[in-house]
Amino acid sequence: TGRGGRMARIEGIDPATAEGPIAAVFRSQTDTWGSPLLPHLIQARLPKLYRGVGAMWSGVNAHGLLDPGLVAMVNRRVAGLNGCP
């Protein structure tokens, strides 16, 4: 089950099976939020996809294509729609 008691349509990986950089991200998320974030668990089912999504966001952030305030607002709205506190 995800946060807010919702169940994902696609089961995420068990964080204990993650390796390398993905495991490091999960540890960081656990330190910050108490557990890995559900979208990351799902994306990690396909490590190449996970790295690609991360690279895309790194590129967007590095080039300032989106205002950081807009990104934060969209992230909060999406979290609310997904039932995240």
Could you give a short description of this structure?
With 85 residues, the chain is mainly α.
What distinguishing features does this structure have?
single chain, 85 residues, mainly alpha, 4 helices, 60% helix, globular
Characterise the protein shown here:
The protein has 4 helices and no strands. With 85 residues, the chain is mainly alpha-helical. The protein is globular, with a radius of gyration of 14 Å.
How many strands appear in the DSSP assignment?
A: 0
Q: What's the rounded overall pLDDT mean?
A: 85
What would you call the shape?
Answer: globular
Total of helices: 4
Which H/E pattern describes the elements? HHHH
What is the straight-line distance between the termini? Answer: 14 Å
Level of helix content? 55-70%
Sheet with the most strands, sense and barrel status: none
- Report the portion of residues in β strands: under 5%
Instruction: State the low-pLDDT regions, or none.
Output: none
The secondary-structure class comes to mainly alpha
Cα-atom Rg, whole angstroms? 14 Å
Chain-wise SSE layout:
Elements lengths: L19 H14 L4 H6 L3 H17 L4 H14 L4
